[in-house]
Write a structure and sequence with these properties.
Number of helices: 10
Largest sheet: 2 strands, antiparallel
Radius of gyration: 24 Å
Strand content: 5-15%
Shape: elongated
Structural class: mainly alpha
Distance between the termini: 60 Å
Helix content: 55-70%
Strand order of the largest sheet: 1-2
Order of helices and strands: EEHHHHHHHHHH
Length: 179
């Protein structure tokens, strides 16, 4: 089965001009099976089970059929929440704090055991990641930060999901206080 093939039709805008209109396979072949749709989605990127079920639900005949397809894909190794979590952490951890990464994974339906393992792994590197994010955005200076600038930089790090304790350590470390 070939994915990504497009049909082309030439539609004249007026008598002198013509332009191409393309239709994707999904518009051309509305009768794709649920499993084919799932495999097409999973071939593009990893999906959590909940995310995949949300995308496939409009195309499913029944909830039982959807659950059966998701179970088949998980048993065959096509879909894995652990693999999804590892990929997500790999992509997001360098620029986001532990709480934000864990919150997003929780929203994606990752099991609490896996969340605890991710959280423990990220906690150990959170200061280094926060300092790297901070140093890319702000230049370190020898002078003490004003209250306004301290708050601005703190809000920046907080918006990335870093804890207040880590934010305080990064900003104090940047001022030369190595506590």
């Amino acid at each position: 089965m070939m994915f990504g093939r497009k049909s082309r039709a030439v539609v004249p805008a007026n008598e002198d001009d013509a332009f191409e209109v393309t239709q994707s396979d999904s518009a051309q072949r509305p009768g794709l099976s649920l499993k084919a749709r799932a495999v097409a989605l999973l071939s593009r990127r990893e999906h959590s089970r909940i995310e995949l079920s949300r995308k496939l639900a409009p195309h499913a005949e029944s909830e039982e059929a959807l659950i059966q397809v998701l179970d088949e894909l998980a048993q065959a190794g096509w879909q894995s929440d652990d693999r999804f979590a590892q990929g997500y952490v790999h992509r997001k951890a360098p620029t986001q704090g532990t709480s934000r990464v864990v919150r997003e994974l929780k929203h994606q339906g990752i099991e609490p055991d896996a969340l605890a393992a991710v959280q423990a792994a990220l906690k150990s590197t959170e200061f280094d990641r926060a300092f790297a994010v901070w140093s890319r955005k702000f230049k370190s200076s020898e002078e003490k930060l004003s209250a306004k600038e301290y708050a601005r930089q703190g809000r920046f790090l907080a918006s990335r999901g870093f804890s207040t304790d880590i934010i305080r350590r990064v900003l104090n470390y940047s001022e030369g206080d190595e506590t």
